[in-house]
């Protein structure tokens, strides 16, 4: 129609673009649409009930505006429909992302490991930019991988030089041993959750009641020989860096030490929704909590 004259026209205006988009996405899918053999479409239903309800409710407000004028539209229309459309879009994108993962053929995980010499205690192992764990009595860290590919391996430990190397991991070659060289200097190295050095981290060294303050250099280290800290002193080291939780540990200043910082807690989902303005349209917090569940 050339004019939107009734609820059917208003509803069609909202459903047609959605239907055409989902149909086009399904036509681009690989396979036959047979879920039993893992070849299902991205969208099993082009116009499922929950998404159609969002379009129809929005169409009702459109009819109100056409018939009674913009000033007569329900004052809660905007509060209700914006989050509903946002959740519908998020639901659609999630279905597309899940379909892409399936088409890319995600592999089953296999167990891999990185081990260090038996005389190296509490070495922290990073693989592929992720902290995988700290060695224990068996001097190794095990973790899961899905791809057969070269991974960056970083290992840090008190008293040893940091190792940064590449190793090829596969189901047939999943276990790797890394040798570490004893450190020859007295330093405190500060590293992030990927094993990379953290520059400009604040380091407080408490020696009895005296405080020695320093900042890490571009290599993420503080040279104890350049500070008023004698060999063998028992010190407490506090480390702070923006975006990371602080660290405090006691050690003997007779060699090198490695400090790995943990990223500060990420904002909770509720905080992110509030920051994005999702809940500002609702007077009742319970409504804000359940609207996405109702749409989905």
Summarize the SSE layout with pairings.
Blueprint: H1 7-28, H2 49-68, H3 77-103, E1 110-115, E2 124-127, E3 130-134, E4 140-145, E5 149-156, E6 163-169, E7 175-177, E8 187-191, E9 202-207, E10 210-215, E11 221-223, E12 234-240, E13 247-252, E14 257-260, H4 269-275, H5 285-295
Parallel strand pairs: 1-7, 8-14
Antiparallel strand pairs: 1-4, 2-3, 2-5, 5-6, 8-11, 9-10, 9-12, 12-13
Helix pairs in contact: 1-2, 2-3, 3-5
The helix fraction, in percent, is 25-40%
The overall pLDDT average reads 82
End-to-end separation: 31 Å
Overall geometry comes to elongated
Structural class: alpha+beta
Strand residue content:
25-35%
How would you characterize the largest beta sheet? Answer: 4 strands, antiparallel
Helix count?
Answer: 5
Order of helices and strands: HHHEEEEEEEEEEEEEEHH
- State the strand order across the main sheet: 3-2-5-6
Uncertain runs with pLDDT below 50, 5 residues or more? none
Q: How many beta-strand segments?
A: 14
Any overview of this molecule?
The chain is α+β, with helices and mostly antiparallel strands. It has 3 domains: 7-106 and 270-295, no CATH class; 108-184, Immunoglobulin-like (Sandwich), CATH 2.60.40.1120; 186-265, Sandwich (Immunoglobulin-like), CATH 2.60.40.1120. It is built from 5 helices and 14 strands. The chain has helices at residues 7-28, 49-68, 77-103, 269-275, 285-295; strands at residues 110-115, 124-127, 130-134, 140-145, 149-156, 163-169, 175-177, 187-191, 202-207, 210-215, 221-223, 234-240, 247-252, 257-260. A 4-stranded antiparallel beta sheet has the order 3-2-5-6, with no helix packed on it. Strands 10-9-12-13 form a 4-stranded antiparallel beta sheet, with no helix packed on it. A 3-stranded mixed beta sheet has the order 4-1-7, with no helix packed on it. It is elongated, with a radius of gyration of 29 Å.
